[in-house]
Amino acid sequence: MAKVFYLGIKKEWILFVLLSIIHIFALTRPDNNKNNLTYHLMKKKTILSVLLLGALASANSVMAADGSHQYTIQANKPGAVIQPTMYGVFFEDINFGADGGLYADMVENRSFEFPQHLMAWQTFGNVEVEDDDPAFARNPHYIRLKDDGHTDKWTGIENRGYFGMGLKKDMGYKFSVYARTKGKAKIRVELVSSHNEVLAKKSLEVAGNGWKKYTMELKSTKTDAHGLLRIFLESKDGLDMDHLSLFPNDAWKGLLRADLVKDLKDLKPGVFRFPGGCIVEGTDLESRYQWKNSVGPVENRPLNENRWNYTFPHRMYPNYFQSYGLGFYEFFLLSEEIGAAPLPVVSVGLACQFQNNGEQFHVAVDDLQPYIDDALDLIEFANGGTDTKWGKLRADMGHPAPFNLKHIGVGNEQWGPLYPVRLEKFIKAIRAKYPNIQIVGTSGPSPDDKDGKEFTYGWKEMTRLKADLVDEHFYRDQDWFLSQAGRYDNYNRKGPKVFAGEYACHIKGGDQNTPIDVPTGKNTFEAALCEAAFMTGLERNADIVWMATPAPLFAHVDGWQWRPDQIWMDNLSTMRTPTYWVQQMYCENAGTNVLKMTEGKDAIKGQDGMYATACYDKNTKQYILKIANTNAEAKDIAVTFKGIKTLPEGKVTTLHHDNPNAINTLENKNVVTPKTGSVKAEGNVLKVSVPAKTFAVYRF
């Protein structure tokens, strides 16, 4: 009788088998007398029959001695609907993700509104900061350039942008400035290399004492990741200048870095959460993100202190501010471009609770109305007709059609009694005016109660308030992710749905303070594989899990504060991490309906280091199977697609690397990337060997 290993079988059954085998050997010992041979054979046959029947009864839950697995998919019975928003992206302006990152303007402190008004600028000659009769009421400061009074002395300014300006050979750059003069002034604008070589230059004449916008195009003759912008006064007459900008000609809609937009679009996300994250709350209420400050003419959007500028003393960036050039209007436009449902998040009146412990730091419950109005007005901005105040502003900005907003988050990572008493007022107001908008609440910063942040309390309150979704966050290590594939199997199906709004696998050994030569070093293949395994449980529970977005999204290699991240960049290029590729494989293969997939009666959620889920795509009429093998050796599997006779030839996409610590870098971007090939089934049975340490997606 072939030896068989049983997975997921009760200990009593295993004991029964072992005792029965012992009994057989006892019956066939040499000292058994000949007269009892018939009895012994009959008894042996009976026991073997019992064992065989038991094995057959458990056939669906066996793994043979050769390591093969027998999986079954109910291919003819589509189950729970997978929401179009299931997999997506979350943007927060951390790691210089907006200014210096996605937002393409290369000039830092372009309106001279940093607390130190000339921060990021080098000046020479006769330069002063002024604020009388400004061009823009909410950005009142500007600079005045005057003749230095000597034929061999120059007046001018330099700006090196964010860790230098990335200049590309033969790329055109659009320079713009608001200027005025009492006579006729002239300036020379130059693009300069990191070696102080002039790569492009043009002169610009300014006339008239009223503020006017001037533009020109400069084309770089060389590529340099750390160039700068230099401006000279070339006339005796001085001038005033404000809001200086430099955008590359290939910027998406003249606004955003084209390569980063492409990275997002190629991901094919279903939902786009913005603008955070902790910056929604602010270090204090004054520095919270206020969406109304981020719309309207970009020149008059007031500066905001970034919540991350000096939060991490080991990696401080006192020059980290938000110009709001990337504002809510641009977020909505980007959502449209990448095909994702927008999910804006607004302040609930609580400053960051990690940094503000006490009622006095937050808005009193009775004083919340302006915050509630902000939420209601945001919905009007997104969806209102052009005859409404905020809908008209959207139209005036260039988008008369509504953005079709369906969700809004209220609060980011709040916990304890301070949150639900405030959220309740928002829910009441939003439900009354916009009953079809789905409201996302939060369960706090932890995925459980171990660190005392009242996860269970948060869920209880969100259920009581009838929030539509609850935002869960989890930054944990490999063991946690591999143990949580069944996390949502037993969630209450009658309450709110789940939004896994921030998550990332943080590899054990070191933390954010740990020095590392390669900033991208925490984005290992092992971390991505653990996330892929965990996500099988998200899909399997699509009836309760409606959204999932890993975090953070972007990081600049010269300006990071938090890692791992999905996409890394310098001033010239971007790099997609192994985590990015896992997300793309899920986004591209989301499907429309879950298919029941089991080994025996059990879901595949970590037994023998294997994780799997299956779905059907009604739009393409295709079956999709996702398998993560976290073992150090290959695993043979046979998958029966029950309910159909034949599977056509399919496609397999795999993400694999022999080294769990393998990473992609800007210098070598393709160390870990997906590989595609074809795969054939035998009738309705797919027999494959899944390589060690591999995430594989099969599509028929």
Average pLDDT level: 91
Q: Into which percent range does the helicity of residues fall?
A: 10-25%
Gross geometry:
globular
Nearest-angstrom radius of gyration?
31 Å
Number of strands: 36
Which structural class do you get from the secondary structure elements? alpha+beta
Which band does the percent of strand residues land in? 25-35%
Uncertain parts: 1-62
What's the N-to-C terminus distance? 37 Å
Largest sheet: 8 strands, parallel
Strand order of the largest sheet: 4-16-19-20-21-22-23-24
Q: Helix count, per DSSP?
A: 11
Your description of this structure?
With 700 residues, the chain is an alpha+beta fold. The strands form eight sheets. The protein has an eight-stranded parallel sheet with strand order 4-16-19-20-21-22-23-24. Strands 5, 8, 9, 11, 12 and 14 form a six-stranded antiparallel sheet that branches. Helix 1 runs antiparallel to helix 2 and helix 5 packs across helix 6.
